């Protein structure tokens, strides 16, 4: 959605429902698309918006989405009311959620799992660093609430249970029990450290394929969490990574590292450098794509000879001016003229477009070339000037050539025959021949060519 579409408020009727993703207890979730933009998908979450309590909950989710906004979170797009609901439109993540990825990772090697895990670990930590700096606790961090874009980057979402701690030291517990920290289960309390615990569990689950506190039953899993009893990490989880994970799932929230402290680790610093390098590379690629698109647009413009009249007129005026000033100033002025002629040359080269050539002629450019060919020092007249003039006569109708003929360019073209560059002289000969040919096709045989004697 571009800036204009984002800034233009939409209504429910502007969207079309593509799929129903509703699974949770909080609202209904749909994949939608704008009817006016059918190739782009979005997520729409509909929350009850009837009672004051409903409105408070829905408005708070929108506020949290806006506050949490970063490149690592699901982007908020817009919200509006429909019937008794508040509709929240958000970014659609094509890669599904982390729960689906964990399932797929079961068949991968340890190395592959760890490589995928590192990036997601870093990206979710960046979200927590941002949230916790605002004293916001997510409260419902779990694989189902971490989404993946088309490139596999993690986007943390579902801020429906997120709360700002404000002046309190903790908030009431919420979320899915298997990802609730010991203090949430034991004391109904959560802090920023509770999010760290949940992320630690998620990362272990990604690498090993198993929830570290998993028991034979749900009750046993809850008891394991309460008592801080987790499965020993496998031997392939070692070094700094092992230390980080064990500290993150420590039963004592005071002993867990903060998101900022975890991001200062050697592993995360390395990942940060890799991401910055990839971002730089992405910027270069995007700039290249942008340049290619601009070039393509320019080529299309050239192809159809949609050269702005004001540009053609200015070039005609500049070509008619005498070269004045210091040698440096003359050189700069000449370079600008060559650049503009090169642009015109690309438009003319190998293309038959009489209407475009007529516009060039009417802009005064032929008179400008006549001035250059008759008055500039020969050594200053480069091939760009002579070939641009030639392509005005090439692939054009007799009508166009006659318009050039009537401008009487022959004295200047004949002068170019003395040029030391044989290519410039060759362009001159070719131009004279084509213009003469048009003259013979459109004038009486008895009428002499105005420069017949000079040409001979």
From TrEMBL:
What residue range is the signal peptide? none
Q: Which SUPFAM superfamilies match?
A: Protein kinase-like (PK-like)
Listed InterPro entries: Kinase-like_dom_sf, NEK_Ser/Thr_kinase_NIMA, Prot_kinase_dom, Ser/Thr_kinase_AS
User: Per its UniProt entry, which superkingdom is the organism in?
Assistant: Eukaryota
Its recorded reaction(s) are: L-threonyl-[protein] + ATP = O-phospho-L-threonyl-[protein] + ADP + H(+); L-seryl-[protein] + ATP = O-phospho-L-seryl-[protein] + ADP + H(+)
- Please provide the record's keywords in A-Z order: ATP-binding, Coiled coil, Kinase, Nucleotide-binding, Serine/threonine-protein kinase, Transferase
Protein's UniProt keywords contain ATP-binding: yes
List the Pfam families hit by this protein, alphabetically.
Answer: Pkinase
Question: What molecular functions are annotated in GO for this chain?
Answer: ATP binding; protein serine/threonine kinase activity
Residue ranges the record marks as coiled coil: 260-301
Ranges for domain Protein kinase come to 15-271
Q: What class of enzyme is it?
A: transferase
EC numbers listed for it are: 2.7.11.1
**Name of the featured protein:** non-specific serine/threonine protein kinase
Species this protein is from = Streblomastix strix
């Amino acid at each position: 959605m571009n800036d204009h579409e984002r800034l233009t408020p939409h209504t429910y009727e502007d969207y079309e429902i593509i799929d129903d993703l509703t699974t949770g207890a909080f609202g209904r979730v749909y994949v939608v698309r704008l009817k006016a933009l059918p190739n782009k998908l979005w997520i729409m979450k509909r929350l009850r918006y009837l009672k004051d309590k409903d409105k408070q909950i829905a408005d708070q989710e929108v506020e949290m989405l806006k506050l949490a906004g970063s490149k690592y979170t699901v982007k908020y797009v817009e919200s509006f009311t429909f019937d008794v609901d508040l509709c929240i439109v958000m970014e659609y993540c094509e890669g599904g959620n982390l729960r689906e990825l964990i399932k797929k990772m079961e068949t991968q090697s340890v190395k592959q799992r760890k490589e995928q895990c590192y990036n997601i670990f870093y990206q979710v930590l960046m979200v927590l660093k941002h949230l916790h700096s605002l004293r916001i606790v997510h409260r419902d961090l779990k694989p189902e609430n971490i989404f993946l874009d088309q490139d596999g980057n993690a986007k943390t979402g579902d801020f429906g249970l997120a709360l700002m701690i404000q002046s309190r030291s903790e908030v009431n517990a919420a979320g899915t029990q298997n990802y609730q920290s010991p203090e949430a289960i034991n004391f109904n309390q959560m802090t920023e450290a509770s999010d760290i615990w949940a992320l630690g569990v998620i990362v272990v689950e990604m690498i090993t394929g198993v929830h570290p506190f998993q028991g034979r039953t749900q009750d046993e899993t809850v008891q394991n969490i309460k008592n801080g009893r987790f499965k020993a990490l496998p031997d392939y989880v070692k070094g700094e990574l092992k230390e980080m994970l064990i500290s993150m799932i420590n039963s004592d929230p005071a002993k867990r590292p903060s998101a900022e402290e975890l991001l200062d680790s050697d592993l995360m610093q390395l990942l940060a450098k890799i991401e910055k390098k990839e971002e730089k590379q992405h910027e270069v690629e995007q700039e290249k794509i942008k340049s290619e698109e601009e070039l393509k647009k320019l080529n299309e413009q050239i192809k159809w000879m949609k050269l702005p009249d004001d540009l053609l007129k200015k070039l005609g005026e500049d070509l008619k001016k005498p070269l004045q000033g210091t040698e440096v100033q003359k050189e700069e002025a000449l370079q600008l003229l060559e650049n503009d002629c090169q642009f015109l040359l690309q438009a003319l080269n190998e293309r038959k477009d009489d209407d475009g050539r007529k516009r060039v002629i009417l802009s005064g450019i032929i008179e400008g070339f006549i001035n250059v060919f008759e008055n500039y020092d020969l050594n200053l007249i480069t091939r760009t000037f002579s070939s641009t003039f030639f392509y005005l006569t090439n692939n054009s109708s007799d009508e166009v050539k006659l318009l050039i003929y009537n401008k009487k360019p022959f004295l200047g073209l004949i002068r170019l025959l003395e040029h030391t560059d044989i290519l410039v002289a060759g362009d001159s000969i070719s131009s004279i021949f084509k213009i003469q040919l048009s003259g013979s096709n459109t004038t009486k045989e008895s009428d002499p060519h105005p420069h017949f004697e000079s040409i001979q």
